[in-house]
TrEMBL record:
EC assignment: 2.4.-.-
Short name of any one Pfam family annotated for the protein: Glyco_transf_4
Signal peptide: none
Alphabetized SUPFAM superfamilies for the sequence: UDP-Glycosyltransferase/glycogen phosphorylase
Keywords: Glycosyltransferase, Transferase
Species whose genome carries this gene: Algoriphagus sediminis
Lineage: Bacteria, Pseudomonadati, Bacteroidota, Cytophagia, Cytophagales
Domain Glycosyltransferase subfamily 4-like N-terminal: 12-151
Residue span(s) of domain Glycosyl transferase family: 178-322
Record-linked InterPro entries: Glyco_trans_1 (IPR001296), Glyco_trans_4-like_N (IPR028098)
One annotated GO molecular function: glycosyltransferase activity
Official protein name in the record: Glycosyltransferase family 4 protein
Length: 366
């Protein structure tokens, strides 16, 4: 069985980390695979264990014929049974399918569905391409329901598959003040402004804490707005606006709690990574987050955009650190059991069997 993944970049982000996690996991179970990166590495390429599995196309535009020809050559030589296209890579994958139908095409939709997405990026063109897509994996159940309602494929050919995290051993942080991490790229839907407003509430109450905002400047203008807002509110002491981290393992060992403050999500890999790191968590009620946290059993859940609720949860967490640590350890066990690679690969194998791909006996993942 041969699997070829395609993704646009390896900028630090949920879809990109998922592609890297899959590549490393395929290594661990002996699946022959390649990871094709269309545009640029973005830094996460360093986390791919088998560098010989990586191929960079150097794509400069959608109509970069030279890069597309390079992709065709890789496919012709490797002869994959499955092409697993992440996000916008589906367009070139479908173009390949028109030229070569000897593989099954799986589209992994990481975007998530919201009113904003439906308004700005409805992706109506996918209806014209759907006959070439053999299976759709979504990052949350709401997105699955959306594509079923749009009749993009039959319901049995669209499935929600939870993301899975991978981390090395995490040490206990030794911080003088309680430190939160907000691991999310700089985009308007990630809730940076809500977090700044919550931090302002806590600073006015004379609480001692710190927030580390860590992410790639996918929208550089948004990052500048975040910086300006932090300065306007006089929160430079409390909020650090940082670049993306190429070593999430080390980052999560340096903090006391994790935040998801997004207005929309599918299943953020960061939330699962917080769980593996046994970090107490506060999350907005978006995407699969409430389900992952068992409706608040394993962490705090707040409404999107509510700085007051966020501030209250952060304040409660700072004042009850031992209690929230116990909840975090329970969350760690929950993530390891229900959102690890073994569960993902079990479900993934069912998809491959449904597509009539011979699935070999695979040993347990390291």
């Amino acid at each position: 069985m041969k699997i070829l993944q395609i993704i646009d970049t390896l900028n630090p982000g949920g879809a990109e980390r998922m592609a890297v996690n899959l590549a490393n996991a395929f290594d661990g179970v002996g699946v022959d695979h390649k990871l094709i990166v269309s545009r640029r590495d973005g830094g996460l390429n360093k986390q791919v264990k088998s560098q010989d599995r990586l191929v960079f196309l150097g794509k400069k535009s959608t109509l970069d014929f030279g890069a597309f020809q390079k992709l065709r050559k890789v496919v012709a030589v490797f002869r994959p049974d499955v092409i697993h296209a992440h996000g916008t890579s589906i367009y070139w994958a479908v173009a390949l399918k028109y030229l070569n139908s000897d593989f099954k095409l799986i589209w992994h939709d990481h975007l998530g569905i919201s009113e904003e997405v439906l308004k700005t990026n409805p992706r109506k063109e996918l209806a014209l391409m759907s006959s070439k897509i053999d299976f759709i994996i979504t990052a949350d159940e709401k997105t699955r329901e959306h594509w079923i309602n749009k009749k993009l494929k039959d319901a049995d050919l669209i499935r929600y598959l939870g993301n899975f995290p991978q981390l090395s051993i995490i040490k206990t942080p030794d911080n003088e003040i309680f430190t939160f991490v907000h691991l999310a790229n700089y985009r308007s839907e990630k809730g940076h402004m809500t977090l700044i407003e919550a931090a302002k509430i806590l600073s006015d109450q004379k609480l001692d804490f710190q927030v580390r905002m860590v992410g790639a400047a996918i929208d550089s203008s948004w990052k500048e707005k975040v910086k300006a807002k932090v300065m306007k509110e006089g929160l430079e002491k409390f909020i650090l606006v940082e670049d993306a981290s190429e070593n999430v393992d080390a980052l999560l060992s340096e903090v006391n709690a994790g935040l998801v403050t997004s207005d929309r999500e599918g299943l953020p890999v960061a939330l699962l990574e917080y769980g593996l790191a046994a970090l107490p968590v506060i999350s907005t009620k978006v995407g699969q987050c409430p389900k992952v946290l068992l409706n608040g059993e394993f962490g705090y859940l707040i409404d999107p955009g509510s700085s007051a609720q966020l501030a209250e949860a952060m304040r409660d967490m700072i004042g009850n650190s031992e209690i929230v640590k116990t909840k975090a350890k329970e969350f760690q066990v929950h993530v390891e059991k229900h959102y690890g690679f073994e569960q993902f690969f079990k479900d993934y194998n069912q998809i491959l069997k449904q597509l009539n791909i011979p699935v070999e006996s695979v040993p347990a993942h390291d």
